[in-house]
Design brief:
Blueprint (H helix, E strand, L loop, with lengths): L12 H7 L2 H7 L6 E3 L13 H10 L7 E5 L2 E2 L6 E6 L2 E7 L1 H9 L3 E4 L2 H4 L1 H14 L3 E8 L9 E2 L3 E18 L10 E2 L10 E6 L3 E4 L3 E6 L5 E8 L4 H9 L24 H16 L3 H15 L7 H6 L7 E4 L6 E5 L2 E6 L2 E6 L3 H9 L2 E2 L9 H13 L3 E3 L5
Antiparallel strand pairs: 1-12, 2-3, 2-6, 4-5, 6-7, 7-14, 8-10, 9-11, 9-12, 9-13, 9-14, 15-19, 15-20, 16-17, 17-18
């Protein structure tokens, strides 16, 4: 039986900001074709990442290693050309950004790429989290700062879906036919010019515009007379190939599948045919014996456990006294699952699993569902038990203490 996940329903706000009508997008564009949404009202995406924000990220946060890279006309610029040495405490670092050299490369036509912004820049993290919660596929974000009349990456395709959000300036996007992507390939797979065919779209994005491209869509983007800053929100799709691979991994616990192939099998593969047929039947029987509900539960658990950028409040909540006047709220909008087995309660939320007495079920469900004053918590717990339960859920990052109103 499949687990029932409870809690707040995700809002469409973050995805709607990118695509407009969410149900229409899901039905007609998601995974099928490019989708363009022109600037809606006054929304220019400038609150997500501006030029000043990029300046601040480069000068005040010193992004290192994979957090920053530079590309120029399809080629990676060696990090040695834009990094410097420095110390952190007593440790010598060799990959700190040299802002002056970065800007010189930018002046010469190179694109500066900031990677993993869903982890490091809260406005982008909140947008990614909202999209992630609605689609339930992991989301990541990179920013591309490109000077006028330049191109960072040549024609390529991505092995994940992307939303390109223009936050400053203009950028021209040309798309071509989709390709069948290699599930083992990384991002930014380049394709020979002779294999492109005719363009399918030729679009110039302005601040506030969003272009969605399904995985495998051949595309290239370049600036003309104006610099450009855009965010690429990448959706790392969970596919049935992924699910099948995890099912095959179950064979690692089956002794028959840990046996080595016969000595010399590669010289006489024909002799292996009958045994291979038997092992494949074993594999099929093993997969058919798996409970589909368990498969669905594992995939849901996996997704909820990898979501990033949970809202803050965890530190402050650990440092305040919790009494019956404390107002407690779920730390985020993630769903939760409660399973009672005998006298024990299994609590799952955001990759955290707790084992508790079953008589706490009503109180736990209330704390994970809505804002509640601890003294008004349902479930019949005494004051001491209420405080112990609240402190446990705070410590595990499931709930926070709301600030006192002024």
């Amino acid at each position: 039986m499949t687990t029932a996940w409870e809690g707040a329903e995700p809002t469409r706000e973050a995805l709607a900001r990118c695509v407009g009508d969410v149900p229409d997008f899901i039905e007609h564009a998601w995974g099928q074709r490019p989708h363009l949404r022109r600037r809606a009202g006054r929304d220019s995406f400038g609150d997500l990442l501006s030029l000043d924000d990029v300046d601040r990220l480069l000068t005040a946060t010193s992004p290192r290693g994979p957090e920053i890279r530079v590309v120029d006309d399809g080629r990676q610029v060696p990090a040695s050309r834009y990094t410097r040495s420095g110390t952190l405490g007593s440790r010598m670092l060799t990959d700190l950004p040299d802002v002056d050299r970065l800007l010189e490369l930018f002046d010469d036509g190179a694109t500066i790429v900031l990677q993993g912004l869903q982890r490091t820049w809260p406005p982008v993290g909140r947008l990614c989290r909202g999209i992630e919660e609605y689609l339930t596929h992991p989301v990541q974000a990179n920013a591309y700062l490109t000077p006028p009349s330049s191109q960072g990456l040549r024609v390529h395709y991505d092995t994940h879906d992307v939303f390109a959000l223009q936050t400053y300036g203009r950028k021209r996007w040309v798309t071509y036919r989709p390709v069948v992507d290699d599930p083992l390939a990384g991002s930014h797979q380049r394709v020979a010019a002779s294999d492109l065919g005719e363009p399918t779209h030729d679009i110039e994005l302005e601040a506030g515009d969003c272009l969605y491209l399904p995985k495998g869509t051949l595309h290239a983007a370049a600036t003309t007379g104006q610099a450009s800053l855009h965010l690429t929100i990448g959706v790392r799709l969970v596919t049935w190939h992924d699910v099948a691979g995890r099912l095959v991994d179950l064979t690692r616990d089956v002794p028959a599948f840990r046996e080595a192939l016969p000595a010399g099998f590669a010289r006489r593969p024909g002799e292996l045919r009958d045994e291979a047929r038997g092992r494949l039947k074993q594999l099929a029987d093993l997969v058919l014996d798996v409970d589909p509900g368990e498969v669905a539960d594992r995939e849901a658990d996996r997704l909820w456990s990898v979501l990033q950028n949970r809202p803050g409040g965890g530190l402050r909540s650990r440092l305040v006294d919790i009494d019956d006047d404390a107002v407690l709220a779920p730390r985020d909008r993630l769903p939760f699952a409660l399973t009672v087995a005998g006298d024990r309660l299994r609590v799952r939320r955001g990759g955290v699993e707790l084992d508790m007495p079953s008589w706490t079920e009503t109180a736990v469900r209330s704390l994970l569902s809505d804002t509640v004053r601890l003294g008004s918590l349902p479930g019949g717990l005494d004051a001491a038990s209420r405080r112990v339960l609240a402190r446990r859920l705070v410590r595990e990052g499931m709930i926070v203490v709301e600030p006192l109103s002024r």
